[in-house]
Amino acid sequence: MQYPPGTAFMDGEFVPMAEAKISVLDWGFLRSDATYDVVHVWKGRFFRLDKHIERFMRSASRIRLDIGHGPDQLQRILAECVRRSGHEDAYVEMIVTRGVSPTFSRDPRDAINRFIAFAIPFGWILRPEQREDGLHIAISKVQRIAPEAVDPTVKNYHWLDLVMGLYDAYDRGAPNVVLSDGAGHVVEGPGFNLFAVRAGRVVTPVTGVLHGITRLTAIELLRELGVEAEQRPLGEGELRGADEVFATSTAGGVIPVTRIDDQPVGDGAMGALTRQLVERYWQAHTRPEWTTEVDDIAAMPQAAE
Ligand code: PLP
Q1: pLDDT in tens, 279-301
Q2: Which residue CA neighbors atom 3 of ligand 1 most closely?
């Protein structure tokens, strides 16, 4: 088995990625009973690490999981994973699972929660050399799991709807997908949020979706350009009729969407506002208020938490 090169932290130790393994009895595996977050490192700097740690801690507390580490300790563990991995550009994941119950009881309160972190090479939904061509998506009939059932603002591994949506898209000749809410609105895709631009107005769904940190970043960058994104349900027809569509994700930033169900979005090329956002997003990776040097965290003295 080939593993991406990297470093993981589990059971209190840093280990090579290939050695980071969990029991098949972990509820994280058996029941998708876990939460996680993914932050990236670009040219040796974490991007919006505080926001990712905040979301991770809020998610864990919402589903009654104990991470076992405070925010400063988390930062240090993540930085140390990156430092040991040697990656300048990294995909850095933190996970807490329900864990294993020592008595194999069916009561989740008996399980001992497990924290894992790892750093592997940065991964893309759409590689930079494919950016001009843009992402091609299908709008799937597969419904995103209802927010009343699984809270999508708690980042989770309930991905079977997203994966079945991908197969639906492949069957229809599209390499990617967005799911709907069953009431005529699009929500999100496998690992990304969506934005539609029409006549200078920008809309992004707000319910039934993860509140992505890249989504937040795009909203803030748009505000700097004098554009206030409307956060409200986004109709399928509105998406199809948009002048520009883009996706946002930690795995690639602002990503132009140029075809929907094999029809061009606008004139089929990356839109002007999307292009401006792509440029600003990558430029923002040196802003001191949004980035933190990995080596600075790794060098921080350990404080009692
Ligand atoms: N929506 C889902 C379901 C996701 O899993 C992700 C990220 O993996 C996103 C949206 C985008 O969130 P972020 O910008 O924080 O990466």
Answers
A1: 999 999 999 999 999 999 977 77
A2: 191
Same domain flag for 18 and 109: yes
The CA-CA-CA angle for residues 53, 57, 61, to 5°, reads: 170
Check: pTM over 0.85? Answer yes or no: yes
Collapse the DSSP code of 51 into the 3-class scheme (helix H, G, I; strand E, B; otherwise coil) and give the result: helix
120 HSE (CA, 13 A, CB side) = 17
| Full residue range of the structural domain in which residue 140 is found | 128-270
- Give the CA-trace dihedral at 207, 208, 209, 211, to 10 degrees: 40
Tell me: do 15 and 86 sit in the same domain. Answer: yes
CATH number at residue 80: 3.30.470.10
Pocket test for ligand 1, best of 32, 188, 249 (most atoms within 8 A of CB): 249
Going by CA atoms, what residue is nearest to atom 4 of ligand 1? 191
Q: How far is CA 225 from the centre of its chain?
A: 24
Pairing of strands 176-180, 253-260: unpaired
